[in-house]
Amino acid sequence: MWFPRARVGAGGALVERVLSARGLHPGPERDAFLNPLLVALHDPSFIPDLDKAAERLLRAARAGERIVIYGDYDVDGITSIAILFHTLRALVPGCEPAWYVPHRLEEGYGLNSEAIAQLCREGAGVIVSVDCGVTAREPALVAKRAGVDLIITDHHNPPASMEDLPEAFAVVHPRRPDSAYPFGELCGAGVAYKLAWRMCTLESGGRKVSDSTRSLLIDLLGPAAMGVIADVVPLLGENRVIARQGLKRIRGSSIEGLGALVRACGLDSEKVQADHVGFSLAPRLNACGRLGHAAEAVELLTTATGERAVQIATGLSRLNDERRREEQRIAEQALTLAAREGMTGPQRRAIVLCDPGWHAGIVGIVCSRLVERLHRPAILMSVTEGVCHGSGRSVQGFNLHGALSECADLLESFGGHDMAAGLRVRQDRLGAFVERFTGIANERIGEGDLVGRLTYDCDADLAELSKPAVEQLDALGPFGRANEPVRVRLRGLRLARGGETFGDMNRHLRLRVTGAGAAREVTLIAWKWGEHAAKFQRGGSLDAVVAPKVSSWSGAVEGEVLDVAPSAGSGLA
Prior knowledge:
By secondary structure, the protein is of the alpha/beta class. The protein folds into four domains: 128 residues, CATH 2.40.50.140; 210 residues, Alpha-Beta Complex (inorganic pyrophosphatase (n-terminal core)), CATH 3.90.1640.30; 77 residues, no CATH class; 110 residues, Diaminopimelate Epimerase, Chain A, domain 1 (Roll), CATH 3.10.310. Helix content is 40%, strand content 17%. It has a five-stranded parallel sheet, sandwiched between helices. Strands 6-7-8-10-9 form a five-stranded mixed sheet, sandwiched between helices. It has a five-stranded mixed barrel with strand order 12-14-15-17-16. It is globular, with a radius of gyration of 25 Å. The N terminus is likely disordered.
């Protein structure tokens, strides 16, 4: 059995129920999930054009050609640049790849013809894109006309036919129309890691690599895991392997800038987990790309060392604080506007808003907050010189990229995937776009889908939440999309004392509960529930859906409250 027998105890039955609820029954599939090992990663050569790309990059590096890595400005793009940068430098001493990241506001997402033309004029011999480019037909022609080999690596939705792919030297994509690659959900950093891996085996002349090259590939799992988690791809299959193995390598990474970032987040004594990436590390890397240019974030993970690394990491923390304040301001305005425009009720099942005072680099994360609160796709945009530009986020079951494709004649440009996308639309076409997009959402999103649904794995008794059992549940991580944190329903809980508020401005709520068969009180934490404290009186009873955790502060088991309901005769106010 995967869990040591000495630790199973009474909690083993709970773990088994959770695994069964997730369709993980005893057998090879469960074994692969519980033991996500590097040997489960597929051969990189199965990805179309990947061998061709790897051979060309190595040839360019050995010949001293100028190699430019062109990446997106988000965490997935930044970590992808770092992966190829460090690989090329390690494999070919003296190779110093250049990199280019477009300005989010001035150039927008992806490859653009002007930047490609400039890089060609500056002497690029090979340009390799990461996390972008699969639909960049015109920029590819610019490179081709200049006699520069363009290698595209991407994971965003590709064209439906081979004829519509860009005319590049190589187009590396696990979901190309002709691809038989067995796992299509890699993020940009995952694709870049596969390319790096193949370069390493080509350089070694066989499947095995030297000890130093193996150490390099193991180390690069750290930034690859950050890309996987930050890009919110499904944490299953290869993504789960990369995330699980890579999280172990972040804190001790040989990349000095990554170490400085870990320390700036106060994580140097912590076991880095997916939540740390999602809420601490990734937002800091994203901050400069959202509020300005991502250059310093790329420098941090490539060339920054010593005091320079510390300086950048500290600056990114300050910038992230500024980003949070701006995010809060835009969110409040967007909620007010959405209600005023009738976009929060059942008659209009999408939010599409534009405001010249909104920062285009921040609207995407505000969209995520609106989706979480109002359970419908959201698109928020800023406007510059008559062109609205921004981002959208979706709900499960509504293909955002597909819906934008149906509005393509109204848009200047768009790109992305099912759950997230970027777009540009002329201001004089905004009204028509809003109506068409809303109509598509109304057709495909039922009224019942506009209500939030909370699912849980199984029922549990409070007594089952022993520390060994909760640690076993935690080992089912890393958690994220397609592998949500474990949630259990606890019934018939008794409040041992009244609700207690804590935190800044008493925003949060602490409940002390007991339950049948439990010999101790257990603390439940309800984030941002402080205003409801008076409803929870000593002696009242309730049912609760919680995410069990071991507190990093006290080491005791506690539950994060996701929802509550009064038990019969509860006495709750």
